[in-house]
Amino acid sequence: MMIPAPSLGMNAKDGTTGDDATGSKLPASDVRDMPMAAATALAYTEFAGALKDALRDFHRTDLLAQNPLLRSRIGGPSETAGPQELKALLSQTVSTLFGNARDEKLRRVIELTYFQPALKQEAVADRLSLPFGTYRRHLTAARDRLARWLWEGAHAAPTQPAPPPTARPTAKKEKPEGETASSPEVGDFASPRLSIVVLPFINIGGGTQDDHVVDGITETLTTDLARSSGVFVISRSTAFAYKDKPIDARQIGRELGVRYVLEGSVQNAGERIRVNAQLFDAESGAHLWAERFDKPCADLLDMQDEVTTRLARTIHIELIAAESRRATREHPDRFDSVDHTLHGWRAWNQHLSQEAARQARRFFEAALKLDEDNVGALLGFANAHMWEVNMYASDDRAGQIRAAEPAVAKALALAPDSADAHVTYGTVLFAMRAPERALREFERAVSLESNLATAHGYLGLMKFFLGRAGDTRAHVAEAMRLSPRDPLLFHWHFFIGVADVYLGRVVHGLENLRKSVEINPNWGLSQFVLAGALALAGLLAEAAEVCAVARRLAPNFTIAKFRAEAVSDNPVYLAQREHFYKGLRLAGVPEA
Prior knowledge:
Blueprint: H1 28-32, H2 38-41, H3 44-56, H4 61-64, H5 83-97, H6 104-115, H7 121-127, H8 132-154, E1 195-198, E2 202-204, H9 211-226, E3 232-233, H10 236-239, H11 249-256, E4 260-268, E5 272-281, E6 287-296, H12 300-330, H13 337-349, H14 354-370, H15 375-390, H16 397-414, H17 419-431, H18 435-448, H19 453-465, H20 472-482, H21 489-502, H22 506-519, H23 524-536, H24 540-553, H25 559-564, H26 571-587
Parallel strand pairs: 1-3, 1-4, 2-4
Antiparallel strand pairs: 4-5, 5-6
Helix pairs in contact: 3-8, 5-6, 6-8, 7-8, 9-12, 12-13, 13-14, 13-15, 14-15, 15-16, 15-17, 16-17, 17-18, 17-19, 18-19, 19-20, 19-21, 20-21, 21-22, 22-23, 23-24, 23-26
């Protein structure tokens, strides 16, 4: 299949062809329409891997000659693709694809890393005055964009004309006069997905002595977002160039190549500090989300950490939802692995139910069919299975554990320092009735990312399974403090409520169980436990009503199933469960 590499080999000024690596001229007709049949023979992950190898081996013609990308003819039926043609394709596509001024850094990252020999990555980062982590993110983003352009170009019509040599390639279709422009077609790489800039927060009404607090919030939030899975964040030094300047989200998006802009303000009111934050779509300028925090400023560093942690978690969720909507709007018939993963996490971040978990799992399964090494999809797939198992909703407990365990093992092999991966592994371990090992995984997750709310919440749950229900509340309260509007908030109220009920504090337990059900009425287990707690409190009529709702949500839940799938063998925990079975019976939960 022909890959319409954008104006490949064309000089922006006079239309002449460019030189190949040996200095000889390549005919424009030969370069512009180089066929790359491997694109149709390889899956995208194989194609991207072969492209990465080709970049790495750019100066090794012997290795390039064996690259899978050369499984076709170049220029016509009488010519065969060779290393020099592949080198020309890569270098000239990079030159044009990243020809826009705002993409200069991405172009330089690729060229200095691959096209100039004997430069180590640390040296490239130093030459570009980039922190090494930022350089690595730029390199990944540029390489992914290049792979996606070539891949999607291979699936476009071969007769599609290349864009003008001075224009950034967008592959948009021409519209007859009078028609509105359609959404971007395949190959539109205006900016990476989940890309954002955190603009310097504004100091409202405060003196210069507050500037360090305001700048600290901006910097910490930038750091926290950069640690979020899949998020590409513009560096602090670049963002601070916009300090005290008029803000136009669309212009900033164009200049920095990001899809989202976060702006905010900090107001010091003496004993309290108010923080406002707003998220904008950088392409349309649309306002997507806003949040406000009022916090006492007794300890500024604690306040700063708490605010930025809350913001980072919420913004990550909002970005996933926005990108999922964008994919549905712009190319609903051709989702790639990342699109499916975003859809899966969007479903997961809504009020979870058995159907929502299964819907999310279907998206993650679709993502893994396209990219088996997609860590986000591997974790989502395992989480969705474990949700059913650990919530006593599975009809095939052993089978779902067998499906989840290798997925999370692969994710850990690919991302051993991912706190999220260790949390997911912990959920698999407690499904396997190994709460001590699960506890260690959650502790490991906290050591990697101390502000990861889900890890703190599950720490509290594991203490409960190990007969230490009295310790549960403190851990879960920390999760709530770190992420008070988290999609899993209903889950955390449930943890505290069930721990209180097992400890005999039924009235206290009812308060949190009611909150759990109010936040998410679609989860069967919380309804069953609430029914049992109401029965133990003597509220039998209400218990029966709640039990009826629970049975509609989870018709396969029985006392026998609940007993058989006890997570722990701890004698204290098992004795507490025996007492709770009485409440379930009184509420009307079926025995078997």
